[in-house]
Amino acid sequence: MDIIQSVRWTDDGAGVRIIDQRRLPGELVERDLRSLESLCDAIRTLAVRGAPAIGIAGAMGLVALLPNGTGAREPVLADARQLAATICATRPTAVNLSWALQRVLGRGERTAGDAAALLAAMREEANAILEEDRVMCRRIGEHGISMMRDGMRVLTHCNAGALATGGIGTALAPIYVAVERGWKIEVCVDESRPLLQGSRLTAWELRRAGVPVTVLADGMAASLMRERGVDLCIVGADRIAANGDVANKIGTYGLAIAARHHDVPFVVAAPTSTVDSATATGDEIIIEQRTPDELRCIAGVPTAPIDVDVYNPAFDVTPAPLISAIVTDRGVHRPPYRFESR
Questions:
Q1: Within-domain flag for 338
Q2: What is the distance between the alpha carbons of residues 247 and 91, in angstroms, rounded to a whole number?
Q3: Residues 197 and 86 in one domain
Q4: Measured between alpha carbons, how far is 273 from 53 in angstroms, rounded to an integer?
Q5: What is the pTM assigned to this prediction?
């Protein structure tokens, strides 16, 4: 299988290189992010997206934006804190972004010595976040395959594959591991309106990896379950509350309801870093509201009256009782959900 790498350092190590996911599936374009403006724009406009990948890009970008050199550590730390606050504000729902930024900052704050020592330690921490994400994805795949079998039809929503992480993905990781073992897995993917991450990204990624995939409109999922049958629904997550409520791409909640009605297991796959133990329930999760034009248009072509009111949340919250299991890098968690702290 040819699995894509979505985020890494530039060749000179002075910037972050991403796949511009806004350009897929039409063309594969990589962008180098070397300024605060370009980094924040890439995160805000979904050029880089997916909770783990956003966290990695934010952590690496923070390090890349700090000036090299020697001198006192405190001015560099002050700059780092200000940069981190600006980067974090671009996507408030995805907990991985704030988690990764705070982890890099914390490493710097604990490092003695001058600015050079501080910068070296923060870069080392950003590298560790990237490498740990790769390992995390593999572990999710190995744990999640216990819920699969050869010949399954699997339904997923949005994109929680390699494009969304530093490794082989979260929701797609068990699928990739199954295919590596020679299992035949058929994947169905909701197109994931309004930005079509399912049809544009997941379908592109799976076809590139040689995995059979079928695209359907979001409103067709329930009919698919009834008429053709689905063996498993598996999705990613942008934030998981302490009680197991899950915030994920808008449309996930409706898919979970349909799965429950049709007795289809509904599984969430996400890294432990996505679990927010400080958030008791999904009611406390801030849901990002995005620009109305994302819903009024498709690829710049108007599909609704230009001045019509729009409801466009980026995410919804699926209550824990609708979730059969949550797979993390630490194992398979079942209700009632109790997570260890990070």
A1: no
A2: 13
A3: no
A4: 12
A5: 0.89
